[in-house]
Amino acid sequence: MAPSTARLIGGMFWRQRRDTALCATFWSLHQVCEALVPVAIGLVIDQAVGTGSTSAMVWSVLGIFALFTALTMGWRSGFWFLSKAMVEESHALRMRVVRRVVGGRGIRTRRQSGELLSIATSDTQSAAELLELGSRGVSALLGLTVSTIVLLRIDWSLGLGLVVGVPILVLGLNALGPLVGRHTSAQQQAIGRAAATASDLLRGLRPLRGFGGVTEAARRYRTASRTSLRASVGTVKAGATFVGASTFTTGLLITVVAALAGWYALQGRITVGQLITIVGLATFITDPVLNLADCVFRLATARASAARVAEVLAAPERAPSGVRAAQAGTLALDEVHTPGLDGVGLAVRPGEMLGVVTGETVTADDVTDLLSGARSPERGEVTLAGTPMRELDVDSLRRAVLVEPHGVDLLGATLREVLQTGDDRDDATLSAGIAAASVGDLLADGDAGLDRELTDHGLNLSGGQRQRIALARALLADRPVTVFRDPTTAVDAVTEHAIAEGIRAHRTGDGRATILVTTSAPLLDRCDRVVFVQGGRVSAVGRHRDLLAHSSYAEVVAR
Question: pLDDT digits over 82-120, tens only?
């Protein structure tokens, strides 16, 4: 087991130590009472039925009633504490995974979004089931211990048979655990890949329809789904083999014990009551043994899930997070070097609108990642108000700097929900942001207005409408520094000019700084300065209309 997985499992039991301990205690009470039921019945036969004593019979009935009451309440109480612990822990793990994936500076992982979603939902739930397996294992072992002690007191050979036979049986079943674990891990990975393929297919359905790629996308999903199906069938087969082996060997052990007890009774070595006790205990033993077998089987699945959760939680950040609180101020790249940038320096001061132009998409990606803090430069510094960004706390940095990426993700069932940015905004404020982003046509289309319903991720909208809504949301967030990456690529020329005016008007005043990483001429024309990056270096700085005299710049913005 990897150290990160062991730490995760240990942390789960430590956080839920109270409820898990109470569950194990009550379930142990349940198992002990169940083991004592055949003992009590045997005593009733020998001490009450055999003697004909009325008072002994009354006390026997009361004793068995109390035994069954404790047995029932022990199970119910343990289940309540376990349910509470599992719900709390699965929720805690789910939130840790979600915060790790969507918060901070991001993580470096090869898993696709569909796989991460599967880990955040099903794997966190499965990992939390380790709490149940621990409690069940403890109670089953205690039940077997009590049964063994009783059998040793009745006849040492029967007790010794259990002492030797049960560990051999459990160890033999445990040897099948890795087989089940391999199949389960393969199944989980296949399901995650199928979910990722389906997610990508749904997100890209509109462009797929546009160029006729739906058939090929469906074929790829069908292939991934069939792989998942084969993995699931393999897991079911491995599970069936495990259950069959555990049931057969347990039944064989019980048969041997019962046969020996019957032989001893015929010889007069044990009484009739003791015979009934032994047969009852042999029947009872199936419960803790099969419990242990089921724990071994489910342990493989739960550990595989815990390993996947631990992998995400231990994934390295794309950039480290500091502890200093971010303050509004000048955002600057100071001679930064990355694989795509060679000593780039630029700065946007409060109240300024700065344009950044580059002809290479990868260079624009590098600049955007550096400005957002999602990546650290190999050399040089990215600073905010004179403080290196790597020293800033991520949460405070997000409140000071907002980077609106080119890819649009809309979250919410209505237009009003999509536009919410964590602060309560009245309709007048929302309308102002909508007007600045030229999304007024959505309000005019029908009577729903801001309560217009949107399908998943706004798929019932055009690409241009979704892009403008994302732009409006960024404007409404109203951060001291806002970075836009190609915010008008899906709109027509008239709308692009309107958006350029809207951004300029909305971001002017109160010391707001704005960076536009774009090649849009209307947007660049509204900028106070434009930085032209070519070949990984700053090639020119000036007003947009002045830079048009440079042929390389004019070629990029005229595309």
Answer: 999 999 999 999 999 988 887 766 777 777 776 787 788
To the nearest 10°, report the CA torsion of 389, 390, 392, 396.
Answer: 70
Distance CA 487, CA 115 (A): 29
Pull the structure tokens for residue 539. Answer: 């090639």
Q: Is the dihedral of CA 384, 386, 390, 392 positive or negative?
A: negative
Q: Could you give the CA distance from residue 207 to residue 462 in angstroms, rounded to a whole number?
A: 11
- 266: CB partners within 8 A, 6+ apart: none
Rounded distance between C-alpha atoms, residue 133 and residue 142, angstroms: 14
395-445 pLDDT tens trace: 888 889 999 887 777 878 888 888 887 666 777 888 888 888 988 777 666
In 434-506, the DSSP E strands lie at: 481-485
**Backbone region of residue 459 per phi and psi (left: phi > 0; alpha: psi in -120 to 50; beta: other values):** alpha
What is the DSSP secondary structure assignment for residue 389, as one 8-state letter?
A: G
Tokens of 317: 């950040």
- Residue 39's pLDDT band, with cuts at 50, 70 and 90, is confident
Q: How far apart are CA 416 and CA 427, in angstroms?
A: 9
CA-to-CA distance for 407 and 403, rounded, in angstroms? 11
* Residue 262 near residue 271, CB atoms below 8 Å: no
Per-residue CA distances from 538 to 341, 355, 371, 542 (Å) = 9, 13, 16, 11
Q: The pTM is what?
A: 0.63
Q: Which of 374, 286, 387 is nearest to 329 (CA)?
A: 387
